[in-house]
Structures are given as C-alpha cells and as structure tokens.
Amino acid sequence: MIPADHPRAKSLHTRERLVDGFRRGLVAPEGLIAHGRGEAFDYLLGERTSAVAKQATEAAAAMLLLSKRPVLSVNGNAAALVPKEIVELAKAIGAAIEVNLFYRTQEREQAIKDELLRFGAKDVLGVGEGASAQIPELSSERRRVDPEGIFVADTVFVPLEDGDRAEALARMGKKVITIDLNPLSRTSRAASVTIVDNLVRAMPALVKAAEALKGKDEKTLQKILAGFDNNENLGRSLMTIRGGTK
Ligand code: ATP
Ligand code: MG
C-alpha cells in the first residue's frame, strides 16, 4: 500500500498500474524502462500540465475532429495506464482503435484488445492477421499495420511511439499526434502536434477538449490549428523544463 500522503504517491500509483499491466501481459518489460525515461522528464516538468501542453491539447483535439479517418494507435503502456480514456476519445471523435506494438506478440496484442473491449471499445484493429499491410522502409514486425486502420488513416494518434515509426508515418503523408514527455525525442520532433505531458494527465484532458470542441464548426477548429506551431511548442516546453515559463 502506498500511503496517500506520500509526496510521490501519484507517481508511485502510476508505476503500480504499469507493473500490474506487465503481470497481466499487456506491458512489455521494455515498456517499464521506457516509462522510467518518461518519469525523469516528468520530474523536470514539475509533474504538472504546463500551459504549453494545454495549448497543444486543444490543437490535438481540433486536428482529430477535422480528420476524415483518425486512428488511435495503442501500445501496452497506453492500454495499462489509460484504457478508459482511449475508448472515450475514440467515441468522442469517431476514431478507430488499432493495437500497434514495438515488441509484437500475438498474446500481447490479444490481451490489449481484450482490455480495450472490456472498457467498451466497439472494435480493435491490428490483431493477428488483421495487421497485414506494411509501413514502407521499416524493418521486421514493426512495420505491420492494419489495412483498414493506420494504413489508410489521414491522422494517427500515437501516444508513446518510437521515433523511427513516427517518422515513417509522417513520410507516408499522415498527420501524427503524440503525447511524449521528452520534447527532444524524434517522436516529438516528427509529430505535427506533440503534447509534452504525462499520458495519465494528458489523456483525460484531451478527452475533455475533444468533447468541448465537438460541436464547433470547421472554421473555428481550423483557426485553433492555424495558431499552433509544433516547433514553437517544443521550444516552449523545453523552456518550461529550464524554468523559463509555466
Ligand atoms: P524516440 O524513439 O522518439 O527518439 P526514445 O527512443 O528516447 O524516443 P522510446 O523508448 O522510443 O524513447 O519511447 C519512450 C518515450 O516515451 C520517451 O520519450 C518517454 O519520455 C516517453 N514516455 C514514457 N512514459 C510516458 C508517459 N507516461 N507519458 C508520456 N510520455 C511517456
Ligand atoms: Mg525510440
């Protein structure tokens, strides 16, 4: 039991959820290490959502709502930490959900699909034979995607993606939206919109933003996007780490 008044209680709870996800076959051992890198950046960010991240969240919601075929790409860490919010976001914006793993095994794909179905997902793409299309220029299992999902998507939302794959998706002409605590990662730099924040804070905020912007006309959404520049967003996020802005 983590005492509620422990100064790092939230962070420790998140760790417990990941370890639980690992034991249930959702999270790869490497996913635990990736989380550690995220935690280090979160520490530097003061473990709170910056004003910069809030703006990026608005832009991400606007971009998702303007997309014709948005797909939410889910890995083990995301399924362990924010399954409810993934399903809520898919419903709010009318997106498909696809399992997309760096370390692919049929068991883990299926476990992640089952978890998302348990939280109310209608369908989950990318499992087993479902992942039969390929991202060009990527090697091995990492290139497999669903021909009905990421392969034909105009916008791919990839919370916690590997840089190589994020770059390959961008080269395919897709808009890439990510959540990544490291504003310097290749994923952060390859994306059209990067929310520099912890998945556990950013996902509920993104669901709220999508629900709030849902009824707005295209012009309003486009205006939000026009006012957003991802390079500037990443620069300001670095400044937040250095203590320059909030
Ligand atoms: P890249 O491949 O994009 O250059 P990387 O190789 O440094 O980045 P990976 O191991 O591919 O990193 O992926 C882990 C990334 O996920 C890290 O950038 C880390 O900051 C981020 N991350 C981990 N946990 C979280 C979390 N809970 N919320 C947001 N970001 C996270
Ligand atoms: Mg990487």
Topology, element by element:
Blueprint lengths: L8 H15 L5 H16 L6 H16 L3 E5 L1 H6 L1 H11 L2 E4 L6 H13 L14 E2 L9 E2 L9 E3 L5 H9 L3 E5 L6 H5 L2 E3 L3 H15 L4 H9 L3 H13 L4
Parallel strand pairs: 1-2, 1-5, 5-6, 6-7
Antiparallel strand pairs: 3-4
Helix pairs in contact: 1-2, 3-9, 3-10, 5-9
Protein architecture, described:
This protein has 246 residues and is of the alpha/beta class. The chain has one domain: Rossmann fold (3-Layer(aba) Sandwich). It is 52% helix and 10% strand. It has eleven helices and seven strands. A five-stranded parallel beta sheet has the order 2-1-5-6-7, with helices on both faces. A two-stranded antiparallel sheet has the order 3-4. Helix 8 links the parallel strand 6 (175-179) and strand 7. Helix 3 packs across helix 10 (218-226). The model has no long low-confidence stretch (mean pLDDT 95). Magnesium ion binds at residues 162-163.
